Amino acid sequence: MTQAILTPEAGLEPTTGAQTGGQSKKVFVKTYGCQMNVYDSERMGDALARDGYETVDTVEAADLILINTCHIREKAAEKVYSQLGRLAKLKKQRNADGGDLMVAVAGCVAQAEGKEIIRRAPVVNVVIGPQTYHRLPEALARARQGESVVETEFPTEDKFDGLPNAPEKAIRGRGVAAFLTVQEGCDKFCTFCVVPYTRGAEVSRPVDRIISEAERLASAGVREVTLLGQNVNAWHGKGADDREWGLGELVRRLATIEGIDRIRYTTSHPRDMDDALIDAHRDLPELMPYLHLPVQSGSDRILKAMNRRHTAADYVKLVERIRAARPDIALSGDFIVGFPGETDQDFEDTMQLIREVNYAAAFSFKYSIRPGTPGADMDDQVDEAVKTERLLRLQDLISQQTRAFGRECVGKTVDLLLEKQGRNTDQLIGRSPWLQPVIVDAKLGEIGDIIRVRITQPGTTGLFAELAE
Ligand code: 5AD
Ligand code: SF4
Q: What is the DSSP-derived secondary structure letter of residue 430?
């Protein structure tokens, strides 16, 4: 599965006494969870923009608040309810001032909880799942008539067909590196994971839709696309040559689009890394040398209980094949500690695998019981204190590896895509091919440029670089 979980940023702390302008249609969007939620929020924003909404960046300025939620771990889901509690207060204040406030909850919590959300948090007007969000404008219209709207079925129509193309202005606002969903859902049923239930069965978007969206992004100035899917490397579709394509062939085709200079994809399952995709890493300079390849555990016993359907040795062998094809590839992973039944020895096996693979980055989590998944009913749930201790040890090892990777980059000459302004106005931040943020002097170029730099020193959150000779 999935994705580097993005840390939620500032909360939804409302300050009371705020007013919205009477007739204005202003939406504040708050996104939790993975990159696919970021993409989905953008698409919902596009649909709302067509409906006359303007996006604002404070709760106070908004008359519609849209929360796109994550259900992957308990903490992420609970956060939604505490935020809704705060919004209820804001709404009361608005009503007292003669105004109004609409609240819509989208994403995986919406899918999993459905009308329970409105029962627990009556402030919510619309609950809309990840498969139905193209119906958001219509759902809001119904909500304005006083209805509490819950849209969580898995419809047969393709939601992407139901969504209008983003207005040109909206795409331009998205920057020079954009996400593009190519696949959604999961049929793997790892025993810890809610995704097959919230995002549904695996579906691939057709080739022509993906190409036309990538072309539109390129013509709006996007130079890097990250292809998204819960199981992105399980993507398949009929190619222009009438043959069945896998992700490797798709990437090859996208690399020919004028203006698309960099391609990434996330998240991959080890079992779906086929030869064509590994060959694409060998052959295509556009395909960035970075791969997020979660393994979750290094213990065969635990991998089996997780239903990952491969062994630790299979994974290590796969990594060797990928590195043989693209020696400078940087790997990142996801790890779960404290899955039911995990012993000290199982955990040591995970630590051993991490030492063997040597990651550039990784995301790690304590196992969190998800109701409705097989893991929730397993005996031998691991003690919270044990989980905490294991997580700290694992994260310490990973951060040593990440720092070592940063130090190894010093002295290397790399291409940097300049993405945004730094904290200081005289600095720009770009991304290295290995996804590290790199800070350079703003005089070296403009946002959207790809410049050749030499890494000079590691910093706390990224690297520093100067123009290469
Ligand atoms: N508990 C803890 N971590 C989980 N993940 C998925 N489900 C759970 C869970 N129940 C982690 C996996 C996945 C990442 C996105 O989140 O490591 O790869
Ligand atoms: Fe990924 Fe497994 Fe969850 Fe599917 S079930 S999304 S493969 S972790």
A: E
Q: Is 148 helix (H, G, I), strand (E, B) or coil?
A: coil
Tell me what pLDDT residue 9 has.
30
Question: Where is average pLDDT lowest: 200-209, 242-251, 289-298?
Answer: 200-209
**Ligand 2 and 231: CB distance under 6 A:** yes
Cross-strand partners of 430: 418, 438
- Give the ligand whose atoms come closest to the C-alpha of residue 33: 1
For residue 41, report the distance from its CA to the centre of ligand 2, in Å: 21
Q: Are 339 and 382 in contact (CB under 8 A)?
A: yes
Is residue 16 scored above 70 in pLDDT?
no
Lowest mean pLDDT of 133-142, 243-252, 283-292, 357-366, name the range: 133-142
Q: What is d(CA 127, CA 109) in angstroms, rounded to the nearest whole number?
A: 9
Q: How far away, in angstroms, is 192 Cα from ligand 1 center?
A: 7
Q: Looking at ligand 2, which residue's alpha carbon is closest to its atom 7?
A: 1
CB 213 within 8 A of CB 180: yes
Residues 6+ apart with CB under 8 A from 282: 325, 326
Does residue 8 surpass a pLDDT of 60? no
The rounded Å distance from CA 364 to ligand 1 centre is 8
The ligand 1 atom nearest the CA atom of 334: 17
pLDDT tops 80 at residue 185: yes
For residues 383 and 386, give the distance between their C-alpha atoms in angstroms, rounded to a whole number. Answer: 5
Residues 6+ apart with CB under 8 A from 437: 429, 430, 431, 461, 462, 463
CB 435 within 8 A of CB 288: yes
Helix ranges (H only) for 51-73 are none
CA of 351 to the centre of ligand 1 (A): 18
The pTM of the full predicted model, rounded to 2 decimals, is: 0.91
- Whether residue 301 contacts residue 342, with contact meaning beta carbons closer than 8 Å, is answered with no
Q: What is the pLDDT of residues 70-105, one digit of tens each?
A: 999 998 878 899 999 999 999 999 888 888 899 999
